[in-house]
Design a protein that fits this description.
The chain has 20 helices and 28 strands. The N and C termini lie far apart (109 Å). A hairpin with a 2-residue loop joins strand 22 and strand 23. The mean pLDDT is 79. Helix 2 (14-84) packs antiparallel against helix 8 (340-389) and helix 16 (652-671) runs antiparallel to helix 17 (676-693). With 832 residues, it is of the alpha+beta class. The strands form five sheets. Strands 5-4-3-2-1-8-7-6 form an eight-stranded antiparallel sheet, with helices on both faces.
Length: 832
């Protein structure tokens, strides 16, 4: 500032020079602070808005998904109950009682119902009073249709009859949820519709159910009122005045949080499932028109879309989020937050900041004038005192003015005469500190000072105490008087070479006392030099370490003993390691031999070609040298016996169990035992005996298939067996009730059963182990029985060898670069 005035050749007084920069600084600081405050407020507003939108979106998405998942889960539970209790199909009242029980854990479903194939129907709906309405429609041949409505309690007991409608025209099979489920979607959520009995807008989750023979029984359904979704949205707090609503891809209003706050659930539903562009709420109407104009209803949105829109001259922050699933739900969730919900605070803060800035400028100007007056007077006093000091009058006293900097300057003047006394006092104090330090060193260390020739000129009492020499005996003698004779001349030559060069020497020295006792000292020798670099004296500070050296010597002896013991142990470990390597080589050879045995006993291609009635192809690939999978094909003049199994685990025990199983089956086959129950019972007893003898916990799943002139008998528990008809139709046979794992218990005869089927020309069987269906890709997804069935069905017109190669290639392509985690075994048979 002064340089600027000098360049402009301006003259000014001190008061102006003090006030003007002060006011300028205030203005600059206020401007910068206001700007940063505004930027921070805008950034904070954006972050708060984004966080609020993300939190609300997450809650909406989570709750709607929860509604949908609960609906599907409820249908699955009801489906399982009907399958395991077929009598419920013909007892609609008892089925209605079961539906009532489902409301104990399900809070979202409005109506739970079931429509039979013949048109009979049962429905249970929850009432606000806590009771339930039971609706039963009975379709009987030769009788009129009767639609009855009952009031029932939470246990499903009928309290009273509400209405009975004879010759009812209601047919659940004409409902959209029934027709759409049967035609297009065996399980999932359907489009929104209006119920015929209660005239409510709902979205339904339906499921086709079949009996154990895969015959169509009817359709299960449960639904959620659209008003319930609006109730959920209304409970969300979207800013201060914000809102949330849901639209479908046709621009119809599914749910909103605005109307519900103005009426009941029934009044809310009057506005739902209507075009949002005709809604009387400006937010919903204008946003729907904007989305329609931009063709966003027909576009596929992968991520949320943020829109800034002005409605009624008010800026609105809008977030459009796609919500869809694999069952046909495709909605748009819209969040609406007026910017005024957050900017009101910023505007008020800006007004306050502006007012405070103006007030600060006024105060700064007034305070600058007052400050300049207070500062100028002490400076004048200092100027007068300086003039007197320049005249030799050093006894000037400057009074204190209350300003820290000026008071400090005044103190410099006032203390000039006292500086010498202060210096002397400080010097005395320093000498006292040195004396205290010397005392402390003397109590713990040996201090010696010698001249450049090594003659002792000073020694403290500690050296007298340790060495046994008196003070008079030490002074004037050389330090070699204390030599023990344990160090070489080279050691002392290196010491003197180091210190004579002005360097500090550190080391350990072994000395000797007056009575010929040795002692060790940790020594530091410091050369004391003058300003020209000449050595004046040597200062030696030593600490006695005799006890420490004794401990080190004892420790060295202990280390030598332990080193010898470790060497002996290492020699023993080396011998043991050589022995283990030898045994490992022997075990590896045995494993290879057993692996060769496994491969040798597998059926050969020549054997399979002799079976003229069947086209057969097999494949087996173990993950380790010894796999746990087993398959075999044994044929005689009368029949063909096929076995496939999976031993738990891998390795030597699994491989041995696989070989034992093959040998036992081959023996039973040649003995001519054709009864599947006796066959598996004898086989299990033999395997159980050997497993216990091996002290092993191994067992295996095993299925035995006997084929004779197109008739097939299946026995034993294994994976689901795939039956393929001539044109690729798939049938699955669950073997869970056909036996128990072999080797798990001594007597399993009562659990063994069998299943018979007939194969026509072109029909066949696919057998496999879980290494096929449970193979995983890089995303940990399983290959699955569905994919296996699809590949078999699509390629069934080919030969078994071609189908086998296609399946194996598809499985390995599915696994990719992942390691195969289980043995892969596949066996295909086709009636010629």
């Amino acid at each position: 500032m002064l340089r600027l005035f000098n360049q402009l050749n301006c003259r000014t007084n001190l008061r102006s020079l003090l006030v003007f920069p002060f006011v300028c600084q205030i203005l600059i600081v206020l401007g910068v602070v206001s700007y940063l405050s505004y930027r921070s407020s805008q950034k904070a507003l954006q972050e708060i808005t984004n966080n609020l939108q993300q939190e609300i979106i997450l809650r909406i998405d989570s709750n709607i998904n929860g509604y949908l998942e609960e609906g599907n889960h409820l249908n699955q539970v009801n489906n399982n109950n009907i399958i395991f209790n077929p009598s419920l199909i013909n007892n609609l009242q008892e089925l209605g009682r079961f539906f009532v029980y489902q409301y104990r854990w399900n809070n979202t479903a409005n109506i739970i119902g079931f429509a039979r194939q013949d048109g009979s129907y049962v429905e249970v709906s929850r009432q606000p009073s806590g009771d339930f309405h039971l609706v039963i429609l009975e379709q009987k041949e030769g009788q009129s249709n009767q639609l009855s409505t009952y009031l029932i309690n939470t246990k499903g007991d009928i309290l009273k009859t509400l209405s009975v409608e004879k010759n009812s025209e209601f047919d659940p099979r004409e409902s959209s949820w029934y027709q759409e489920t049967v035609k297009n979607n065996p399980s999932g959520w359907q489009n929104i519709y209006q119920t015929k009995l209660s005239n409510q807008l709902v979205i339904a989750s339906s499921r086709v159910i079949y009996n154990s023979d895969q015959e169509f029984i009817g359709v299960l359904t449960n639904n959620i009122r659209l008003g319930e979704l609006s109730l959920f949205l209304n409970q969300l707090k979207v800013g201060k005045t914000g809102a949330a609503f849901i639209l479908d891809r046709k621009g119809r209003l599914i749910a909103d949080s605005i109307k519900f706050s103005q009426g009941t659930l029934e009044e809310e539903e009057r506005f739902l499932f209507t075009p949002a562009t005709t809604n009387n709420n400006p937010y919903i109407r204008n946003i729907a028109e904007y989305l329609k104009k931009k063709n966003l209803f027909s576009k596929s949105l992968e991520n949320s879309l943020v829109i800034d829109l002005a409605i009624n001259q008010e800026k609105i922050l809008i977030d459009v989020i796609p919500f869809n699933n694999q069952e046909g739900i495709d909605w748009l969730i819209v969040l609406v937050i007026p910017e005024s919900d957050f900017t009101g605070f910023i505007r008020a803060n800006t007004r306050v900041s502006l007012s405070l800035s103006i007030l600060a400028i006024i105060i700064a100007t007034i305070s600058g004038l007052i400050t300049s007056k207070v500062i100028i007077q002490p400076i004048i006093n200092l100027k007068n005192a300086s003039q007197k000091i320049s005249q030799g009058k050093f006894n000037q006293k400057i009074p204190s003015q209350g300003i820290q900097e000026l008071d400090s300057l005044a103190q410099y003047f006032n203390h000039m005469s006292e500086m010498l006394e202060s210096i002397f006092n400080n010097l005395n104090k320093s000498l006292q500190d040195v004396s205290n330090l010397k005392y402390a060193i003397d109590q713990s260390a040996i201090v010696t000072i010698t001249d450049p020739e090594g003659i002792i000129i000073y020694s403290n009492d500690k050296l007298v105490e340790v060495s046994g020499y008196s003070y008079e005996e030490l002074i004037g003698t050389k330090t070699k008087k204390l030599k023990s004779g344990c160090h070489s001349q080279e050691f002392y030559h290196q010491l003197w070479t180091t210190i004579s060069q002005g360097k500090v020497w550190r080391g350990e020295i072994k000395n000797k006392t007056k009575n010929n006792r040795f002692y060790w000292v940790d020594t530091t020798i410091v050369p004391l030099i003058d300003e020209k670099g000449n050595i004046l004296q040597y200062l030696s500070i030593q600490t006695e370490i005799t006890e420490r050296k004794k401990l080190e010597k004892n420790l060295e002896q202990i280390v030598q003993i332990r080193t010898h013991e470790l060497a002996q142990a290492n020699e023993e470990i080396t011998l043991l390691n050589q022995r283990l390597c030898s045994e490992n080589l022997q075990l590896t050879g045995k494993l290879k031999l057993l692996h060769q045995m496994q491969q040798l006993i597998l059926p050969k291609k020549e054997e399979l070609e002799k079976i003229h009635c069947l086209d057969i192809a097999g494949y087996s690939e173990p993950t380790d040298e010894l796999g746990g999978d087993y398959y075999d094909i044994l044929a005689d003049d009368n029949s063909v016996t096929i076995g496939i199994g999976d031993v738990t685990g891998h390795g030597l025990e699994s491989g041995i169990l696989m070989v034992m199983t093959q040998a036992a089956i081959c023996t039973l086959k040649h003995l001519g035992d054709t009864n599947p129950i006796d066959f598996l019972d004898i086989l299990n007893r033999a395997i159980f005996f050997n497993v216990r003898r091996m002290k092993s916990e191994k067992n295996l799943s095993l299925a035995i298939i006997n084929y004779c002139q197109g008739e097939v008998c299946i026995a034993g528990q294994h994976e689901e067996i795939i039956i393929v008809r001539n044109h690729g139709e798939i049938e699955l046979i669950d073997t869970i009730d056909l036996g128990l794992p072999i080797g798990i218990d001594e007597d399993i005869k009562e659990f063994i059963n069998y299943h018979k089927i007939t194969l026509d020309k072109g029909d066949g069987i696919v057998l496999y182990t879980d290494g096929i269906t449970e193979a995983r890709d890089v995303n940990k997804n399983q290959y699955g029985i569905e994919r296996l069935c699809q590949v078999v069905s699509e390629n069934w017109s080919l030969s078994c060898e071609q189908i086998r190669d296609i399946i194996i290639d598809d499985v390995k392509r599915f696994i990719g670069l992942q390691k195969i985690e289980d043995d892969l075994t596949l066996l295909l048979l086709k009636q010629r």
